[in-house]
Each structure stands twice: as C-alpha cells, then as structure tokens.
Automatic annotation (TrEMBL):
Pathway: Lipid metabolism; fatty acid beta-oxidation. Residues 18-215 form the 3-hydroxyacyl-CoA dehydrogenase NAD binding domain. It comes from Anaeromyxobacter oryzae. InterPro entries: 3-OHacyl-CoA_DH_NAD-bd, 3HC_DH_C, 6-PGluconate_DH-like_C_sf, ClpP/crotonase-like_dom_sf, Enoyl-CoA_hydra/iso, NAD(P)-bd_dom_sf. The keyword Oxidoreductase applies. This is 3-hydroxyacyl-CoA dehydrogenase.
Length: 805
C-alpha cells in the first residue's frame, strides 16, 4: 500500500544547502562531491570526549569550538590530502562548513537535505535519526541515510510520522566522486514524489546513475557483486588457483574492470567485503545460495592480521619498497606473500585486442584452460543468481545491469552478459555441469532488443517487452544510429542528425584516435551543418573522447622518411581545426574522459566547450618528443596575446603560462581545472551527468545559433617576439643545468617557445594566425627528424607511457 502523497508545498523543488552527518571517509567524501556540484555543505560529527594533549597545551578545553568541532574539521582537512582527489578544485573546500552533533543540530533547519553517514549500526542510526535529528529537520527538507544494506523500514519506524514520507536511502558508492552508482531505496512510508524528485536531482546535479532498489539486505549492487566475489573465492579453492590467476580471468577479459576480483577487494577493503558477506549470510536465511556468502577462514585471518587492502597498503596484493620494487600476492595456502608471476592463459590471450566486450567474453568462455573454467563457473553461478533475484531485489533487469556497470564497473551487466553468451547456451552448459536451472529461463531467448531506435527489455514479471526508461535530456547515439540518424560515415567518424538543426560529429576509431578518416569527416560535418542546420556538436560515447592523433601512422612515416606525407598530414590537421573555428555555424565540443593531444586541439577550436565533469584534457605531445601541431600551440599563443591586449599589459606572463601548459604536458584532473590551464574559457559550461552531456552541448549550440556571428582568421597580432623566447630559453638552460630536464626536453621547449612567440622577430611585429600555424608546423617537422623523438614515440606505442630521454 502506497502512502498518501505529501502536500506538494512540503516537498523541496530545489536543494542549495545540505547537512552531512558523519565526517568519516565516506561522509567527508560525500560532502566533497556535494561541494563539487556547487552545493553548500554543513559537515557535522560527534564532540570528542576530551581535548588532545596538543589542545590542552594550547589552553583549549571541551568548551572551545575548535575542540568540539575537531572530528569534522579533521574530516574536512583530510579531503585535501586524498589521492585520487575527491574534489574538482581545492577551492571547493570553501563550500564545506564544519560543526558538531550537539551545538549545531538547530542549524539543520537551514538545510534542504540532510544525509546521515554514521557507523553502519542499526541501533546507532535509529537513535541519531529519531532522537537527535528528526526534531530539527525543516518541514520542506528531505532526510536520507547512506546505509549500504540496513533496513530502510526499520530506520523509518524510528522517525515521527510527519517525517517518514520524506525519508529514504541514498546509498553512495565509494569514492563518491568517481563511482557513478547511487542506489535509492524508499521505505513503505516514503512519498513516491519525494523518491522521484530526489532521483532526478541526484542524477542531474550530482551526475549519478540512479538504481531503484528494495528493502532487502545489501540492496542491488552489493548483493550481486559480493556474491560474484565470494563465488570466485570458492571456485579458486576448488580449482587450486592463485589470487592473480583468478584476477586474470575475472577482469577485462570477461567484461569486468581491471581490478578484477581481488584488486577490487583491496580497493573496497577486505574487512568491508567480509562485513557485507557476513551481513548477507546472517540476514538471508532463505537464500538458496546462502553458503556462498560464508567466506573461507583465510579471509577472516587476513582481517585479523590487519591485511585489509589498499588502506593498509597490504591485502591480496602488496607492493614492496626500496630499490627493487615488485608486486607480491597473498598465497591463501601458506598465508604468506609471494612474488607475482603474471600468469598467461590461452583463453585470456584470445580476448586481447577485442574491443567489443561481448565478443571478448565469448572468446574466453570458448577456451578450455583453467582461466576459462574459472570464468565459466563464476559467471554461470552469478548470472543464475542475478536471474533468480528478480523481483526480490529490483523490479527489472535494467536496474540490476545498471547497478553492476555503475557500481562495480562491469562493462556488461548480468543480463547483458546473458545476451552475449546466449540464454539457451548458458542453460545447456549449466545443465551439463549438473547445475539446476530456473524453469522460466528455458523459455527466454533474449533480455534486450532494439526496435525503431528504442531499446527494450523483457519484463520478467510477465509484462512482455517494455521500453528501457529514458531520462529527461538523455541522448543515446547508438539508438539514434539504429533509428537512421547517420547522415555521413566512414571508418573513423560519423555525422548524426540530433534534430532541431543540430548535427553531431562522432568518432568511432580504436580509442577514438584521430587519423585521416576523422579529419576528412570534420570537413564533411561542418559543410553539412552549414548547409542544412544551425550548428554542430563534437561528441561521442566511447570510453574516452580521444587519445589524440594516430601515432602508429606517424612513426611509420618517420621511419620511411616520408617527410612530405608527414607535412601533408599536419597541414590536414590544421585545416580541420581551422574549419571548425571559422565555421559559419556554431560548434560546441563535449569532451569526456581522456581528451589528449589532437583530441584537445579539436576542442580548443570549437566556439565553446561543454565538458563532462570527469574530463582529463591536455596537450601532451612533449611526451612523444613533439609539440601540438594541430593548432594547439597557435591557439594558446593567440589566447595569451588576446589576454594581454584585453588588459593592456605585457604579454610575457600570459605566454609563459601557456608555454608551461604545453611544455609540462599538463593534464586536467577535472573539467573544472581546465580554466586554470587556459583550455576552458570563462562561460563554458560543465555537465556532471554523462547521459545529459550531448543534450547540454546541443542546447548550447542552439543558444549560440540565435545570434551567431562567424569570425575570420586573426591578423594584426603583436608577436611576443624573440626577446620572450630568449627569456624562456634561459629558464630551460638553467633547468637542464640543474638536472631537472634532459637535453631533448630543452630542444622541445625551445621549439615550443619559438612557435608561440612568433619566431625570430622583434616584439610587437604584427603577424597573422596563419603565420603562427606555419611556425608550429615547421617546428613539428624539425622535431620529427630528431632520433630521440622517434625513440619517444616508439616507447609510447610499446609501453603506453612517456620516455624522458
């Protein structure tokens, strides 16, 4: 029975201020991500029992605020030291105010949302929420708990009746900034409108992927994910495998993350894994697979010994220190650490190089070695378990798949895996193993289908085929392709019609590397948008926006001495970026993930950028012995010159800052950091929700189109000149003399400085944008002729990391 809807006036439509109760690691990092989103946060924790010796020595007592707020203050301060950082910018800390759970409870009335993040203990939470917090929650505010598996109904029953309709579970996954999943679980009292509005707010404002769970132990993701990990441990023992052998079979080869099984356990904490497993075992007496959650004794022993994973710097893996650094893994048979052997299996090797996760999965399961056996058994049991949990833990397959992709970083959810394997094939193999198969699975051929540009799923509750819910503002390029939205296509890129006169340039090469096909499609996309539309979005939905130019083609040309081909390629890249910059319709780039080198340069030449919050962008060409030659060096020089003109001041500090961005190959740690690197212009927007990224970029195109004025290539630019280049060269010489950079680093730095300052001309000499482009192209070609540059490119292609020779 659903509760009666609350009066609409009591349901907040806007959240500006949030109270976070609990300043431990989880509470503090939730507060950090709220601050990332621009919300004001009040972070509260308990009052210490007594002053520390240092506090006493300073004359402080328990009556002093500094002492009483110490726990929350320490939680806030710790955010600045965490790596990876839970903050977009260090200045986001300014949005977090601290206090304590005795003096500041009355301030909860100022808050639109109060989220409790204290110890995972039902009695503690009930007392805090019911006795201390409830009297101070504003009549319009929402109250939630961050429990990972405690009963929401048991917690709601501790609250006054007037507050219960505004109470629910909001379960963040750790770390909150980086893990997209947020499970929402209402109680039997929760107003459905509160649930709906909170889900939408958390999706749009915090960028979360929302999964709707039920009041069952450990909800959705932990229920399936911890089962899969526990099951893998049991099969490891049965098959006589090692920790690293299991990880070889339970990582990317089977569409799961690089952390696989045991590295994931180290990340989340082995004590946390044990706690969730025990919680499941104790609270699920009727679960047919209950015994799976009973972990073997060696896991309990590890926790007792303090081998807790990454937080203890030793768990299933450990890194040695000193001159000989090596990775060790925990041998569960001896209880000791042994050197990692990096095992190789034919089945796993067969999956290497396959981009499509479904094909990868099938390649491994077709094998017959130990890794294939482990992978099959673990997935067989996990997929059958997930199938039998519906509708117990969630209403449909979509929520379960989302939970595992967003919460455990699986590339495919359990039901997407079933489609990849084939339900009939899984039934056949499982029965051959003597494993019981649910009768209703026999009649199912697929769980997902695409029809008329709509993705549909099979309702296991008997409702037939239903549309996968699409949130407001969500654009899925794959579905648009299925619906016939592709208007241009080649091997490297496509142009899609997004509607309303806006087109989208989408990359789809391997790692979205930029080659001749992509550059050709840039021109075709611009022409199409100019002739038929209002503007162009540059975006894709690959893992990363673009890793840059195709280095393999470049190194082949250099090795053959095909300098004319190299020059033509660089010229083609510059023409493509300039076509974007001087298009007759607005162009908006929407990068996400890695946007490096040439990918960054394409974005720099758009009229505006609308990056995803998690965008790691930079001009990294010096790592391969080069400088940005797709217009990146020119563009940062041009921006520096324009800033100096705007403020009527010396250009040197602006050029030096831009030079540093390129010469140090700086990469942003968030989209918010791009502005300080000179890569994002003031006024460009940032989107936190991945599924809204293309929509938001499209809206920016339409806004610009309303009064768009195409510009012309710049001329009459006062070159910084040889004197600024000489100043930078002096700094480079000093750095090399001090051993901070190599001789080749100095060579590259001088080339960058020369291109950025206008070449060998006096300061103030008027040059054109094309002049700067020619200088960067010439410098690029000179560096291509350096032996050490070729070594750097080859090292990057082979090792995936830069060589500083």
């Amino acid at each position: 029975m659903n509760p009666a809807p609350a009066d609409d006036r009591s349901i907040t439509l806007r959240i500006d201020r949030v109270a976070v109760l609990g300043a431990g690691v989880m509470g503090a990092t939730i507060a950090a991500h709220l601050a990332n989103a621009g919300l004001r946060v009040l972070l509260l924790d308990v009052v210490p029992k007594e002053p520390t010796p240092d506090e006493s020595a300073a004359g402080l007592t328990l009556n002093d605020r500094a002492v009483r707020n110490r726990v929350a203050t320490a939680g806030r301060a710790g955010l600045a030291q965490m790596r990876p950082s839970p903050l977009y910018l260090a200045s986001d800390l300014d949005r977090i105010e601290v206090g304590n759970l005795e003096d500041d409870l009355a301030r909860l009335r100022e808050c639109d949302w109060v989220v409790e993040v204290v110890v995972e203990n039902l009695a503690v939470k009930r007392q805090l929420l019911g006795e201390k917090v409830a009297p101070h929650v504003a009549a319009h505010a929402v109250l939630s708990t961050n429990t990972s598996g405690l009963s929401v109904n048991a917690l709601a029953d501790a609250l006054p009746a007037s507050l219960r309709p505004r109470f629910l579970v909001t379960h963040f996954f750790n770390p909150p900034r980086y893990m997209r999943l947020l499970e929402i679980v209402p109680s039997r009292h929760t107003d459905p409108e509160v649930t709906r509005r909170m889900a939408e707010l958390l999706r749009r404002r915090l960028g979360k992927g929302i999964v709707h769970g039920k009041d069952t132990p450990n909800f959705v993701a932990n229920r399936i994910g911890v089962f899969a990990m526990c099951n893998a441990i049991h099969h490891m023992l049965d098959l006589g495998l090692t920790v690293e052998e299991v990880d070889a079979a339970s990582g990317p080869a089977t569409a799961r993350p690089k952390s696989a099984c045991f590295r994931t356990a180290d990340l989340v904490g082995i004590d946390t894994l044990l706690h969730v497993a025990r919680n499941s075992f104790e609270l699920l007496p009727d679960d047919p697979q209950r015994e799976t959650f009973r972990l073997p004794g060696f896991v309990t022993d590890m926790v007792a010994r303090g081998l807790l994973g990454d937080k203890a710097k030793q768990g299933f893996y450990r890194r040695t220190r000193g001159e000989k650094r090596e990775t060790l893994y925990f041998d569960h048979r001896t209880g000791e650490y042994v050197a990692a052997r990096r095992p190789r299996f034919a089945s796993v090797d067969a999956a290497r190089g396959i981009d499509d996760p479904a094909q990868r999965l099938r390649a491994v399961l077709a094998g017959s070695d130990a890794a294939a056996t482990l992978a099959w058994r673990n997935l067989r049991d996990t997929l059958l378990y997930a199938f039998e949990r519906i509708p117990d833990i969630a209403d449909d397959v979509v929520n379960v798949d989302h939970a595992m992709r967003w919460g455990f970083s699986w590339e495919l959810g359990p039901f997407e895996m079933l489609d990849a394997i084939g339900a009939a094939e899984l039934v056949r193999r499982a029965e051959a193993d003597g494993v019981r198969v649910p009768e209703r699975l026999r009649s199912i051929s697929r769980f997902y289908a695409v029809e008329d540009g709509r993705r549909r799923f099979l309702d296991l509750g008997g409702g037939g085929w239903r549309d996968v819910p699409v949130a407001a503002g969500e654009i899925d390029l794959r579905l648009l392709e299925e619906a016939g939205a592709v208007v241009e296509r080649n091997a490297g890129a496509s142009v899609l019609d997004l509607g309303d006169g806006v087109f989208c340039l989408e990359f789809h090469s391997k790692m979205n590397a930029i080659g001749g096909d992509t550059l050709s499609m840039v021109h075709r996309a611009v022409r199409r948008a100019e002739a038929e539309g209002q503007g162009l979005v540059i975006a894709n939905q690959g893992k990363n926006f673009s890793v840059g130019a195709n280095l393999a083609l470049l190194v082949a040309a250099i090795a053959e001495g095909a300098w004319d081909d190299v020059a033509l390629t660089v010229s083609a890249f510059q023409k493509a970026t300039m076509a974007l910059k001087y298009s007759r319709v607005p162009v908006v780039a929407a990068p996400h993930g890695l946007a490096l080198g040439g990918g960054c340069e394409l974005c720099l030449h758009a009229d505006a950028m609308n990056p995803l919050a998690e965008t790691y962008m930079g001009l990294v060409e010096v790592g391969v012995g080069l400088l940005p030659a797709g217009g990146g060096t020119k563009e940062l020089a041009l921006r520096a010159i324009r800033l100096a003109e705007q403020y009527e001041t010396d250009v040197s500090p602006f050029i030096t800052k831009s030079f540093t961005t390129i010469a140090m190959a700086k990469v942003s740690t968030s989209a918010a950091e791009l502005e300080s690197l000179g890569l994002l212009r003031h006024g460009d927007g940032i989107t936190l929700a991945p599924d809204r990224l293309i929509h938001d970029a499209k809206q920016k195109v339409l806004a610009l189109a309303a009064s768009y004025r195409p510009s012309q290539p710049a001329s009459g630019l006062p070159a910084p000149g040889r004197s600024v280049a000489a100043s930078i060269a002096t700094q480079l010489w000093n750095m090399r003399a001090g051993g901070f950079i190599s001789e080749h680093d100095e060579t590259i730095g001088r080339a960058i400085a020369g291109a950025m300052t206008g070449g060998d001309v006096p300061a103030g000499t008027l040059v054109t944008e094309q002049w700067l482009l020619d200088l960067e192209r010439e410098a690029f070609l000179r560096l291509c002729g350096e032996r050490k540059t070729l070594e750097r490119i080859q090292h990057m292609l082979k090792k995936g990391k830069p060589l500083r020779n």
